[in-house]
């Protein structure tokens, strides 16, 4: 109510943004999601066994990319330490399998998920709740934590040192061993679909809209009475749990977990996935993994001596001509606002 006794409606900034997102963008995105799901479901019918192992790895890395996209694309936290949660989850499950001969997915994967969840809680006190935290501080903190964990795993004999933990067994569902074939692939695909759908429901909920508001106008959202730090911490911890799950799957798919799973190389790699595919859409993160890993595989096979340079040039061209990611082919700048993802300069201008 204003000074004249009239009622005044205060609109939340992210609700205004989400109201301009057209249904056409969602329909196009849904069609592409369905098409990609059908292609992935039919992949075992067309691919040889050795490529099935490669595609399964892509699915597992997609989980890690989704976790990073939640943190950066929606909450606006540029984390250079997603590999920390990935590696912690992998090591936790691997140690349990090595020391206690556990192989059940019902035990190992929840342990990996919880390990990532627990470490993310600890990191949130530094990255989110710390006094005077800036974007640069958050990025450097996650980067430092990832490197410290890498050095710790590299030097501690109990974790295998630089050799890691090799010869991990295949996961089992009941009496069924997953192995390297279609069973392992479809299990990984099912996990990715569940995580993707849950994550999509989260970012399209009121909570997700609040995150969109924080990303675009954090001070305004805080002024409206929302606990910004708690919202950011919630998505940071949720993403850490997903990364831990991804690490657990990766360890048993590869049959090995080493210090590199905690390092800054993998953390930087997942940033490129989202840059290539498009951040703040979830699907863009998955597309980025598929394109980057497939291109790496093809170039390393054809040009074994210069493939890293060729890959770098290809990725540079992709960023130059599609600065908003490949997903921008299907979603316009306006449709990337609100709960679709990070706003572009063009999208912001359209709001003016």
Outline the structure in words.
- This protein has a domain at 25-260.
- 69% of the residues lie in helices and 1% in strands.
- The chain has helices at 13-19, 23-46, 49-74, 82-100, 105-127, 135-155, 182-203, 206-223, 228-254, 264-277, 283-302, 307-321, 345-351, and strands spanning 172-173, 176-177.
- A hairpin with a 2-residue loop joins strand 1 (172-173) and strand 2 (176-177).
- The longest helix has 27 residues, at 228-254.
- Mean pLDDT is 83; it is low at 7-21 and 338-352.
- Pfam families: BPD_transp_2 (PF02653).
- It is a multi-pass membrane protein.
- It is found in: Cell membrane.
- It comes from Pararobbsia alpina.
Task: Name a few traits of the molecule.
352 residues; 1% strand; transmembrane; 2 strands; membrane; two-stranded antiparallel ribbon; single chain; mainly alpha; disordered C terminus; transmembrane helix; globular
